[in-house]
Design a protein that fits this description.
With 192 residues, the protein is of the alpha+beta class. It is built from five helices and eight strands. An eight-stranded mixed β-sheet has the order 1-2-3-4-5-6-8-7, with helices on both faces. The longest helix is centred in the middle third of the chain and has 15 residues.
Length: 192
């Protein structure tokens, strides 16, 4: 069931079913797109990620599966593949704050601006449907591609948490970024 549609991808409510959990854990355990993340630090089983997804849903998070057209020429043109997850988490109702997270776990779809579109769709949903005042995220300082993606969408650096992330034998700073509703409205109006 498609919920938000862009040109490169569509966002569907995360079903948290066995197939999604299996695809997610296989990709995360392979580690091909998790170099800058805490996700994938521990070996995962499908039951583990389903438990995490269930806890997030109970906490009020809004989670989407990212789906796009398959790259295999044998697929029907309307065939869609599950390539990642994104959503709004850690909601603080009184402040109207949400944390944005995204992971495209299938490496063949990285660098194709699908992540940028999924980010835009989710941010727009947060401001226009959930009445968010501010959406924020944290990103590994070494993940230059992600930082550029977030900046294209409109996120601005707000601060740094020093040596917060440990990945592959090295400590990294976490760059905190955010976007306010009025900034998003200005960006959206300018593009219209």
């Amino acid at each position: 069931m498609t919920f938000l549609v862009g040109e490169k991808c569509e966002l569907r409510p995360l079903e948290r079913n066995d197939q999604e959990a299996l695809e997610f854990t296989k990709a995360v355990n392979a580690g091909l797109t998790t170099r800058h993340l805490l996700t994938g630090s521990y070996p995962m089983r499908p039951i583990d990620i389903k438990d995490v997804w269930d806890k997030e849903a109970k906490a009020g998070s809004v989670e989407f599966g990212i789906w796009t057209q398959g790259n295999n020429p044998m697929y029907h043109p309307d065939y869609r593949v599950f390539i990642g997850t994104c959503g709004l988490y850690s909601h603080r109702d009184i402040y109207q704050l949400w944390e944005f997270r995204i992971l495209i776990f299938d490496p063949q779809y990285v660098g194709k601006r699908i992540g940028e579109e999924a980010t835009r769709l989710t941010v727009d949903y947060g401001f226009m449907r959930l009445n968010a005042h501010r959406i924020w995220l944290g990103v590994n300082e070494a993940n230059i591609a992600a930082r550029k993606c977030y900046e294209k969408v409109g996120f601005v650096p707000e601060g740094v948490k020093r040596k917060e992330l440990y990945c592959y034998g090295q400590w990294y700073d976490s760059v905190q970024m955010g976007i306010l509703r009025e900034e998003w409205t200005s960006i959206s109006t300018a593009k219209a």
